[in-house]
């Protein structure tokens, strides 16, 4: 009888230990992503310098695999995140906030942190276009993720200011969905329907070096000041089930951000080495050092951006603070 009790106790302990081990287990592969452009510089460094692996090892998980995908728009990132093909999505604030709104009753997507603030420009090769009022039905505006991207929201905000809030979709029929590199090629070809592009550094800088290309407006003018362009987001489910992995990725983002701001020259060299386009590291460095370009994890101007999305019905839920949109790990930062 005593022996049976001992075996029962031992068996119960073993089951308890197994359950505890299972509960503590985290993913054995972290699925990351990046997109095109210098706004994703932290992710470029994290991949090149294996910073996620470094912080996973510090957390006692040296065997965790880190994989990277390259996607062309935030909408594709959202699809991959919900399908399990990604654990951390990256892109513009527009797609991130759309998924935040749509997953509030299930996986609860929130922002991990911002990546960068930088002006996005609406540029054109049409000499007759000086403002939104000058666009005609013959013009087409290339942008990545047309319809849900951050540039889409910027253009809708500009249209609301120019034509009235009831006409915020006035420019939508002119949008053409093309990743930034393809949109740039279409614009510079001088052929086809694309006569304009709403894009970001370094693509807008490359375009403006060509005769006949000029700026119509930029996102800082629309927003009335600097605002977050790109960010990283994830599900609460993943964060809750993989706290060490989540923290390792956030710590890697912090280290990469600090490294960029401490040595932009090296960051530019890594960007070019990692296939960041045909521009030289010197040219990339100049863009990174230009006024209005900032690499920071602190969200800037995201609340008025999201509240506009709510006003036009893109978001059903209106955030009352920028902290509603991001996980509490960065709530100590000076966001807005």
Structure in words:
Strands 7-6-8-5-9 form a five-stranded mixed beta sheet. Strands 3-10-4-11 form a four-stranded antiparallel beta sheet. The protein has a two-stranded parallel sheet with strand order 1-2. The chain has 14 helices and eleven strands. The protein is an alpha/beta fold. Residues 1-23 have low confidence and may be disordered. The protein folds into two domains: 29-118 and 227-330, Periplasmic binding protein-like II (D-Maltodextrin-Binding Protein, domain 2, 3-Layer(aba) Sandwich), CATH 3.40.190.10; 121-223, D-Maltodextrin-Binding Protein, domain 2, CATH 3.40.190. Helix 2 crosses helix 11 (243-262) and helix 3 packs across helix 11 (243-262). It is globular, with a radius of gyration of 22 Å. The chain has helices at residues 2-24, 41-48, 51-58, 74-83, 93-102, 150-163, 180-189, 203-208, 219-223, 236-241, 243-262, 264-273, 281-288, 302-311, and strands at 29-34, 65-70, 89-92, 109-117, 121-124, 140-143, 175-177, 194-199, 214-218, 228-235, 294-295. The protein starts with a helix and ends in a 25-residue tail after the last helix.
């Amino acid at each position: 009888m005593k022996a049976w009790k001992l075996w029962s106790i031992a068996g119960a302990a073993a089951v308890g230990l197994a359950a505890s081990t299972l509960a503590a287990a985290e993913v054995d592969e972290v699925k990351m992503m990046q997109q095109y452009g210098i706004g994703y510089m932290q992710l470029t460094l994290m991949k090149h310098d294996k910073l996620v692996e470094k912080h996973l090892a510090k957390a006692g998980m040296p065997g965790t695999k880190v994989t990277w995908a390259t996607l062309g728009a935030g909408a594709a990132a959202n699809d991959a995140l919900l399908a399990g093909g990604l654990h951390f999505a990256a892109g513009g604030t527009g797609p991130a906030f759309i998924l935040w709104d749509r997953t509030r009753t299930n996986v609860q997507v929130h922002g991990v942190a911002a990546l960068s603030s930088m002006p996005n420009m609406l540029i054109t090769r049409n000499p007759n276009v000086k403002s939104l009022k000058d666009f005609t039905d013959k013009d087409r505006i290339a942008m990545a993720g047309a319809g849900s991207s951050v540039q889409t929201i910027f253009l809708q905000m500009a249209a609301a200011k120019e034509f009235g809030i009831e006409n915020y979709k006035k420019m939508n029929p002119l949008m053409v969905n093309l990743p930034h590199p393809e949109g740039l090629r279409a614009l510079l070809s001088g052929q086809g329907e694309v006569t304009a592009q709403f894009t970001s550094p370094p693509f807008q800088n490359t375009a403006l070096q060509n005769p006949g290309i000029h700026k119509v407006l930029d996102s800082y003018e629309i927003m009335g000041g600097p605002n977050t362009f790109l960010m990283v987001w994830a599900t609460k489910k993943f964060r809750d089930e993989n706290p060490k992995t989540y923290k390792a990725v956030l710590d890697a983002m912090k280290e990469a951000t600090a490294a960029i701001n401490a040595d932009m020259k090296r960051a530019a060299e890594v960007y070019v080495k990692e296939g960041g386009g045909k521009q030289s590291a010197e040219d990339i460095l100049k863009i990174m050092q230009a006024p209005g370009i900032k690499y920071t994890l602190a969200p800037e101007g995201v609340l008025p951006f999201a509240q506009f999305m709510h006003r036009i019905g893109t978001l059903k839920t209106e955030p009352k603070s920028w902290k509603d949109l991001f996980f509490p790990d960065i709530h100590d930062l000076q966001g807005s």
